[in-house]
Amino acid sequence: MLRTDGIWFKDETGRTRILRGVNLGGSTKVPCRPDGSTHRAEALTDSRQVSFVGRPFPLEEADEHFDRLRRWGLTFLRFLITWEAVEHEGPGRYDEDYLRYLAAVVRKAGEKGFLLFIDPHEDVWSRFSGGDGAPGWTLEAAGFDLLNLHASGAAFVHGRHHPKRYPRMIWPTNATKLAAATMFTLFFGSNTYAPRTTVEGEPIQEYLQRHYCAAMREVMLRLRGMPHVVGFDTMNEPFAGWIGWPDLQKTGGLVRLGDTPTPLQSMALGDGIPQEVDVWGVGLRGPQKVSTRLVNPAGVRAWRQERTCVWRENGVWDVDGGGKPRLLRPDWFARYGAGKADFARDFYRPFANRVAAAVREAQPKTMIFIEAETGQQPPEWKEGDARNIVFAPHWYDGLTLFLKRYFSWLGVDYRNQKPVFGRRAVLRAFIAQLRDLRDAATTKLGGVPTVIGEFGIPFDMNERKAYRTGNYRDQIAALDRSFQALDANLLSATLWNYTADNTHPLGDRWNEEDLSIFSRDDRRDPMDPDSGGRALEAAVRPYPMAVAGEPLTFHYDLKRRRFTFRYRPDPAVTSETELFVPALTYPRGVRVTIRGGTWTHDIPKQVLRLRADGGGEVSVVIEPA
């Protein structure tokens, strides 16, 4: 039904496919019963008695949501699951009710004409370490006390912070705090960095990876025989933890915001030793230290009473005669064998191959979607590594995402962490950033298709002004700019996100994120399938779905609703080229200008079909009638 062919996806007729869709859905990160919305402290009291049945939406609502997304042309789904949803009761204990529900809703997606790939989602490891994904028992296996992670400074947990105002975009900082940094380091590299740490006599790296892969294989077994399930992601946003950290007495990481302990301070805090920690802020000039603060003054331990800190146990640090933390191995995590550690090469790559082998026991031909640590290059793929892979990096308009404000004239080039000024310069920088990601699929992975697995914009910009006024002008402009950068690179992508139970007060129900293009609170007319959609002027746009040849360029001018497209026909492909032409964008029909071919318009299916006349390139312009 769908295959890889060099840098392109191809369908069964040989047409080149450009795939556009959404992440489904944002609230899949938290349990449905009891309500796991992250502001609720009570959602963290029992890590094992939960249910994700109903995520992304109840089965009885599936027709409504799938029909809406199909009408919007967003027919390729990054379908979220979590390890916790599958195996929350304990190691090897799978939630059969959830797996039956999952199979039913995925089957329904196929009946509605969607293609999808499964994304085992996690952010900074687990709900109990300030994110989502892994079951609570994984942290307990390492020795953590789930109830003390926030109080000790081992994690910043929304529900434990409540009812204070949750600091904007604080959750990514958990990646380098004790709980998540430890779990990622153990999961990917305990054999190297924590050889003394075992679970029931088994190295904890093997214990955790074995259970993860078995759970993912179980998921794919339940979806066997569904050809529209075209692939499986290895893990959402894998982090290195402290692997590769050059000096444990220095701060670092992708995001420095709020309390920013060094790894040594994090280890000390987790052992109940208060620390004076740097506090960072962010503004238009970027991140910077703004103050210091005493963290964990009560001396709360992150570890269970009978457990020693994993890193003391493995000789990374200790305390001196005065009870002060003393670092024994400053560059411990920077070493690998006789050289320097490279997370992507030495740890993520073998893990990705292990996941590929596990899920292909259930579905041998499934594509494997490869990610990379956020902001980093993917591993270099070698002979003998898994074949039939897809590169699925993430990309965001970072300034808009973090500040929750849109500046048409200002952006950040993440490649050099410098500001970019001027409307056109910002767009050029975004196009170049996405081109770099697309090119990495060739230089690192040997020439494979690229799907931007996540991109999107916050809808609660400007202190939620749009919710009071109904004016989503800034959100439309910000999202259109991201789409323009994608279109310029001919990229497939899945928008973050569609959350069926999004509301204005709670957003996507996770760490005060609010990026869903649909909200119940924006639904004015239940009989209108588009009601509840947000920034649809930007999100619902023409694009080439299936091209009988090689796509060359396409561009959509939102203001004029003018779509231009060029392609080079392949004489060996006899099927027609199909363009998505949304009725929402062109309610009164279209005016088409074409060179090198002929066209027909299937209005009910919102498809414009092109056929080359046997000459050279085909170009088409679509405008409102």
Assign a percent range to the helix content: 25-40%
Average pLDDT score: 96
Structural class call reads alpha+beta
Please tally the β strands and state the result. Answer: 30
Strands ordered across the widest β-sheet: 18-17-9-6-5-4-22-21
The global form is globular
Distance between the termini: 35 Å
- The unreliable regions are none
What's the story with the biggest beta sheet? 8 strands, parallel
Task: Please report which band the strand proportion falls in: under 5%, 5-15%, 15-25%, 25-35%, 35-45% or over 45%.
Answer: 15-25%
What Rg do the Cα atoms give? 24 Å
Helix run count: 15
Quaternary class = single chain
Give a structural overview.
- With about 625 residues, this protein is an alpha+beta fold.
- Helix content is about 25%, strand content about 25%.
- The chain has an 8-stranded parallel β-sheet. Strands 1-2-3-23-26-29-28 form a 7-stranded antiparallel β-sheet, with no helix packed on it. It has a 4-stranded antiparallel β-sheet with strand order 24-25-30-27.
- Helix 7 (about 205-220) crosses helix 10 and helix 12 packs across helix 14 (about 475-490).
- The chain is globular and about 85 Å long.
Topology:
Blueprint: E1 2-5, E2 8-11, E3 16-17, E4 20-24, H1 62-71, E5 76-81, H2 83-87, H3 96-111, E6 115-120, H4 136-142, H5 158-161, H6 178-193, E7 198-199, E8 202-203, H7 204-222, E9 229-233, E10 258-260, H8 263-270, E11 275-283, E12 286-295, H9 310-313, E13 317-319, E14 325-327, E15 335-336, E16 339-340, H10 343-360, E17 367-370, E18 389-391, H11 398-403, E19 410-413, E20 418-421, H12 423-443, E21 451-452, H13 461-469, H14 473-488, E22 492-498, H15 536-539, E23 543-547, E24 549-557, E25 562-569, E26 577-580, E27 590-595, E28 597-602, E29 607-612, E30 618-624
Parallel strand pairs: 4-5, 4-22, 5-6, 6-9, 9-17, 17-18, 21-22
Antiparallel strand pairs: 1-2, 2-3, 3-23, 7-8, 10-11, 11-12, 13-14, 15-16, 19-20, 23-26, 24-25, 25-30, 26-29, 27-30, 28-29
Helix pairs in contact: 6-7, 7-10, 12-14
